[in-house]
User: Fold this.
Amino acid sequence: MSAVAVSSPLEGLHGIFSTTTAGGRMPLTTSPRTRATSTAACNSTPSSPLPLTQGESIHKPRDNSPLPRSLGRSGPKFPYSPKSNIAQSRQSPKHLELGVSDWTLTGTGPCPSTASTKKFSAWSRGGKTARHRTSRSDDSRTSYWKPSTDGLPESCKRNDLCTRYNRPLKQASAQSAGFRRQIPTAPERVLDAPGLVDDYYLNLLDWGSSNQVAIGLGRNVYVWSADSGSVSCLLETPADTYVSSVKWSGDGAYVGVGLGSGEVQIWDVEEGTKLRSMHGHETRVGVMGWNKHILSTGAGSGLVLNHDVQVAQHKVAELGSHTSEVCGLEWRSDGAQLATGSDDNLLCIWDARLLKVPKFTKRNHRAAVKALSWCPWELKLLASGGGTNDGHVHFWNTMTGALVNSIDTGSQITSLKFSNHYRELVSSGGFGDNSLSIWSYPTLVRDIQIPTHGSRILHSCLSPDGKTLVTAAADESLKFWRLFDRKAGWHTGIPTARREGWV
Assistant:
């Protein structure tokens, strides 16, 4: 029996994976106001056309020539567009009212007066004026005029406007999480997971309250200690079956193991011994969830069973609402409700006191419902995510059954996790997007998207302290991401009293 291979950093949690990100921004290009003149005056090369002098003509390309031989001056394509007041080529006098335009763009200082004006001669080509003529009521002559900028405040001067226009954009506000805290975009640790089954419907990864990670790899279950970094093989199944799901008990002492044969086993991790086996499913057990001493199991037949692990006759409830494989199952933290999702595209919400029929059955998803997460700061809020043909995250009020909100992620959703420290939700992408996305709630703005694995993410779990997310992907690797690190003085927006005991 070979132990799982471990690829970890030399020392600590950072290792060879750089946490430096490409945070620089490309500066804006030259302002459209100065581009026409500065290009000709400062950036001319032997191959660039020289400025036209009066009387010169522009050589027109032949009809069969795909490109002009040189670029000539031309008026703006949309002379009356909102940006025409900052263009340099062949503007109308109205467009050259720099005082008014500058004040409008900067929004600082008093509105300039247009009373002070001066006349200037029109620039023409071929005897035809390039500007529209304007006529003033107190003068019968045709003239061109613009307001003077002599008396304007410094904030309205043209050079100041160019500086303002070309400066880098401000960083996103704290409402969208490029915000004030730094989120590493590189994993702090990577572990090899050879033999991880690439199956969307299985749940082979879990992080227990004892700070140990259990993962099913083929016929084996391995346990990795986040405290010591040690790895041990907990069990190996017979040759005729395989591990299809794992789930830690609430106290972190026991792990439930679902098998491809339909058998469910309970293991004491510290002792390394099997406590009992439970039967009742005829197909593989792909998902499990604990509610104190009740272990709920979902199978490929669509059947969900509740097992009381403390009594000999363990089967205490049978939930038969689904018609296809159950791949999502989550108990609410207080044990009052149970959510189940299936390959029949249904989301069922169950009242723990009445398990004969679902309290609500939701048909909004258009693909299998695997990803489920209960909100830690609002117990009645449930998030559900759909598969490849759906890609939506729906948010539900489980007291009324109302659809609260939705997100279209554009890819298969393999897992959802609400943060215990921030009002955020992290989703993992399957087919179409192998990345993690962090969404603010309730704004549903995508704060950051992090490329993760070379293939689709299959599973994700939060650490007991709620700071680190581990992902397992079809590239047979585990990666640990420090997404929700809390710093002193940082206001999370989640009341401490509501959060205690849920991490």
In short: The chain is about 5% helix and 35% strand.
